[in-house]
Specification:
The structure holds two protein chains of two kinds. By secondary structure, chain A is α/β, with parallel strands linked by helices. Chain A is about 45% helix and about 15% strand. Classes of the chains: A alpha/beta, B alpha/beta. At the A-B interface, helix 4 of A face helix 1 and helix 2 of B.
Chain lengths: ~450, ~260
C-alpha cells in the first residue's frame, strides 16, 4: 500500500477538528453542566470560538464560551504545579456559579507537568461536590478522543456503580459529536423523536432534549445502548457493557431519509422486542408526511433536470460522510466521485469504515480516503478525473469548489457560512432539510 | 558566580557556611516581579551564590523552573553588571529535559565539563550529556571541555574513564580521588578550599581550577550508541573479573 502524501507532512493545514480539550464542549452540551478549563486561557477560548462560534454560530449555551471558569495557566502553575490554583478555582466556582455538575477538563500544560488533578478533584468528590475530571491534554488526540474521555469521566466519577433493575424500553444514544457536528442539536432531537415514536424511552444525553445529569444517572438502568456512528461511542458502549452489563447495537450509518430511517427503526424495534405493528404504524405515518413533500418536490426535480447535479464529493467526518453518501445515492440517485474523511479516526476502525463505503448500494462503491490536511484535500479534488457538481464539505472547501465549479453544502466543521439553530439533516425531517439545502445551492448557482 | 541549577538547591550550601539561600523560584513564587540582585548572595572568598530552586518534589516542572531562573538573570543583565570572572552553572547529572539543557544552549555557557566516576551509571549519564551537547552544538551551544574524573582511587577506575574519553573524543581534565577531607568539610558546611586549604585534596581542586581557567578550546564529543556503550561496558566487566581472579583488585582494596 502506498503512503498518502498527507502522511508525509509534519504539519496539517486547516485541520477539521479541535484538540482533546475541545471536549469541554461535550460538557457544555449536557444541560446544567459546566466545564472548568484547566488550561491556558487561549486554549479554552480557541476551542469555543472555533467549535461553537465559527461553526454554525451555535453559541455558548449555559455553561460554555465566556461563562465557564478557567485556571488560565501561567508560568507559576507550570513551575510549581497547578494543584493549589485548581483547588482554589473549584472552591470559588462551586460557590459562585450554579451548575448541576462541573467537569474539569485538563489541557496540555497540566498533563505534561503532571498535576495531580485526580487527588484535587477527589477532595471535592469526597465532600459530595458534583465535580469530575477528564484528562484531555491536546497531545492525547483530537476532540473526538477527548469526548470519549469526558463521557467516561462522567459515567465513572459521577453516575457511578449500579446494581438495580434494568428498565425495559429505556435506551442510551451515543451518536454525533456535539458542537463539532454543526447540526447536532437538530439531529439529536430528530433521533430522539423517531425512537420515541416507536415506543422507546430515550436518553439522548446531550442537547436541549436531554434531561441533564438526572438523565445521565439513569444510564445504568437502560435496557441497551445504541451507537449511531462509524466509530465514536463504541468504546463508551463497550465500557458500559463491562460496567453495567448492557448490550449495545451499533449502526455505523446515521439514518437520513425514509429508507434508511425506516430500516433503522425496524432493526431497533426488533432488538428491543417492540411490537412490529407499532413500529410499522409510526413508519407509515412518518412516510406519509415525508412523501407528500417528496411528491411536490418531484416537479422541481424533473423540470429542473438540466441543473440538477449528478456527481458529488464528500469532505467531512466518517459518520456524516457515510450517512450523506448513502442518502445521496439511495434516495437522490446521485453518484459519489470522491469521499474524503477528515477526523483522523483510530487506526483500528479504518478498515471497517472503508468497507462501509465499498457497499453503498448495489453496484455503487467508492474507496474512501483518510486525509486531514486541507492542502492535500484540495489537491485530491483538483487532480481527480471526475469533478463533483456538488461538494458536501466545509467553509474551507469553498475555494476548491469554486475552482472546479461545484456548489458547496456546508455540512461539517467549520461551517462558517451557515447559521444553524435547530436544523437537522438526519431522520425523516432532517432529510427534507438536506434536500432543500442541496437544491437551494444548486439552483442558487444560476442566480 | 556559582549558579545552582537543581531543584534541591544545595549547590552553594558549602560556600555559605552550610546555610541555604532563598532561591530565584522561591522568590518568584512570592511575587511576580523579582530583582535578580535580591537572590544573589555573597559566599566564601567573594563568590556570588545563586540557586535557581524549583517546585516541591513530585509537583510542577523543575526544568521550566531552570529556564525561568536563567532567563531572569539574562534579561536583567546581571552577569555583565557584576563584572564576573567566571560563571559556573552547577547542573544536576543528566539532561532529563529541555529545561536542564538551558545552560548548554547558545549564549549561556561557553564550555561544559562533566563530572563522572568510573561507575557505569555515571558513564552512561555522561554519554547522555554528550548526546545533548552534540545536539546543541549544531545550534551554537556550548562545547565539551572534558570530563572531571571523580572518585578515582583504583588504577582500573582511571583506566575506565580514560578509555571512555578516548572513545568519545574528549579528555580528562583532572582525576579527583575520593577523600575523607571532602566529607569532613561538607559536614562543617564548608568547601575543602576553605576548611582544609593546605590539604592534598585542596591542591587537586586548585589544579583543576587552573586548568579550567586556562581552557580555551572545547570540542563536539562523539557519544557512543547505546549498544556500543553496553558492549564496551561488558568488555570492562570481563576485564575486571580477570583482575579480581588474579588478585590485583583485592590487593588494591586492602591497601585503601
Amino acid at each position: 500500500m502506498t503512503q498518502h502524501p498527507s502522511m508525509k507532512s509534519e504539519s496539517i493545514s486547516r485541520a477539521r477538528y479541535g484538540c482533546a480539550v475541545g471536549a469541554m464542549q461535550s460538557a457544555v452540551a449536557i444541560p446544567g453542566t459546566m466545564p472548568i478549563a484547566d488550561c491556558g486561557p487561549g486554549c479554552a477560548d480557541k476551542q469555543y470560538a472555533s467549535l461553537a462560534f465559527y461553526n454554525g454560530f451555535q453559541g455558548s449555551g449555559y455553561g460554555g464560551g465566556a461563562s465557564h471558569p478557567s485556571i488560565n495557566t501561567t508560568e507559576k502553575e507550570v513551575v510549581f504545579g497547578g494543584n493549589d490554583r485548581l483547588r482554589e478555582l473549584i472552591q470559588a466556582s462551586t460557590k459562585v456559579l450554579k451548575a448541576d455538575l462541573f467537569v474539569v477538563t485538563t489541557g496540555c500544560i497540566s498533563d505534561i507537568v503532571g498535576d495531580d488533578v485526580a487527588s484535587v478533584v477527589g477532595e471535592f468528590q469526597r465532600r459530595n461536590v458534583s465535580v469530575v475530571y477528564a484528562e484531555t491534554g491536546g497531545f492525547m488526540g483530537n476532540n473526538f478522543i477527548g469526548h470519549e474521555v469526558v463521557v467516561k469521566a462522567v459515567i465513572d466519577q459521577y453516575v457511578g456503580d449500579f446494581s438495580g433493575e434494568k428498565e425495559q424500553g429505556l435506551v442510551n444514544i451515543w451518536t454525533e459529536l456535539p458542537y463539532q457536528n454543526t447540526f447536532w442539536r437538530g439531529d439529536l432531537a430528530e433521533i430522539k423523536r423517531v425512537l420515541e415514536g416507536i415506543g422507546l424511552k430515550v436518553n439522548i444525553l446531550f442537547g436541549h432534549g436531554s434531561g441533564g445529569v438526572e438523565e445521565w444517572k439513569t444510564i445504568p438502568k437502560a435496557q441497551f445502548n445504541i451507537v449511531i456512528h462509524t466509530w465514536l461511542g463504541l468504546s463508551v458502549a463497550e465500557h458500559l457493557s463491562e460496567k453495567y452489563g448492557q448490550p449495545f447495537l451499533h449502526f455505523p450509518t446515521i439514518p437520513i431519509g425514509s429508507i434508511a430511517t425506516g430500516n433503522f427503526l425496524r432493526d431497533v424495534g426488533k432488538y428491543a422486542k417492540i411490537d412490529s405493528k407499532k413500529v410499522e404504524s409510526f413508519i407509515e405515518s412518518e412516510e406519509r408526511d415525508y412523501y407528500k413533500y417528496m411528491e411536490e418536490f418531484s416537479e422541481f426535480f424533473s423540470e429542473y433536470f438540466f441543473g440538477v447535479p449528478s456527481k458529488f464529493a464528500v469532505v467531512t467526518d466518517s459518520a456524516y460522510a457515510l450517512a450523506i453518501t448513502k442518502f445521496a445515492v439511495n434516495q437522490l440517485g446521485l453518484i459519489p466521485v470522491k469521499v474524503i474523511l477528515t477526523e483522523n479516526p483510530p487506526e483500528e476502525h479504518r478498515e471497517s469504515i472503508r468497507e462501509q463505503f465499498r457497499s453503498i448500494a448495489d453496484g455503487v462503491s467508492i474507496e474512501a480516503e483518510f486525509i486531514e490536511d486541507g492542502f492535500v484535500i484540495e489537491e485530491e479534488i483538483r487532480n481527480s478525473d471526475r469533478k463533483p457538481a456538488i461538494l458536501f464539505g466545509t467553509t474551507w472547501d469553498r475555494d476548491i469548489a469554486k475552482e472546479v465549479g461545484a456548489g458547496v453544502v456546508e455540512v461539517s466543521f467549520p461551517a462558517s457560512y451557515e447559521v444553524v439553530l435547530s436544523r437537522s439533516y438526519v431522520g425523516y425531517r432532517g432529510a427534507l432539510s438536506l434536500i432543500e439545502k442541496i437544491f437551494t445551492v444548486t439552483i442558487g448557482a444560476s442566480a | 558566580m556559582q549558579f545552582g541549577c537543581d531543584p534541591k538547591s544545595d549547590s552553594t550550601n558549602t560556600l555559605r557556611g552550610g546555610t541555604y539561600i532563598p532561591t530565584v523560584l522561591d522568590t518568584l513564587r512570592e511575587k511576580t516581579k523579582v530583582n535578580a540582585h535580591e537572590v544573589v548572595y555573597e559566599g566564601f572568598n567573594g563568590i556570588y551564590c545563586v540557586e535557581a530552586g524549583g517546585p516541591s518534589p513530585g509537583v510542577g516542572c523543575a526544568g521550566r523552573g531552570i529556564i525561568t531562573a536563567v532567563q531572569l538573570f539574562k534579561q536583567q543583565n546581571i552577569f555583565e553588571e557584576l563584572d564576573l570572572d567566571v560563571i559556573l552553572y552547577d547542573v544536576l547529572g543528566d539532561v532529563v529535559c529541555g529545561g536542564f539543557a538551558v545552560p548548554i544552549r547558545e549564549g549561556i555557557a561557553q564550555h561544559v565539563f562533566t563530572v563522572s566516576s568510573a561507575d557505569f551509571m555515571s558513564i552512561y549519564a555522561s554519554n547522555n550529556l554528550f548526546k545533548g551537547i552534540s545536539g546543541y552544538s549544531r545550534s551554537g551551544g556550548a562545547l565539551l571541555g572534558g570530563v572531571i574524573a571523580n572518585s578515582i582511587n583504583q588504577p582500573y577506575s582511571k583506566e575506565i574513564v580514560d578509555d571512555f574519553v578516548k572513545r568519545t573524543d574528549t579528555q580528562v581534565v583532572e582525576y579527583i580521588p575520593r577523600s575523607v577531607t571532602v566529607t569532613q568539610s561538607e559536614l562543617q558546611g564548608k568547601t575543602v578550599i576553605e576548611s582544609a586549604p593546605g590539604s592534598a585534596q585542596a591542591d587537586i581542586y586548585r589544579s583543576l581550577a587552573k586548568k579550567i581557567a586556562a581552557h580555551t578550546e572545547s570540542k563536539v564529543p562523539t557519544p557512543l550508541e547505546i549498544s556500543d556503550l553496553r558492549e564496551w561496558a561488558g568488555q570492562w566487566g570481563k576485564h575486571l573479573l580477570e583482575l579480581e581472579r588474579s588478585g590485583s583488585v583485592a590487593e588494591t582494596l586492602v591497601k585503601v
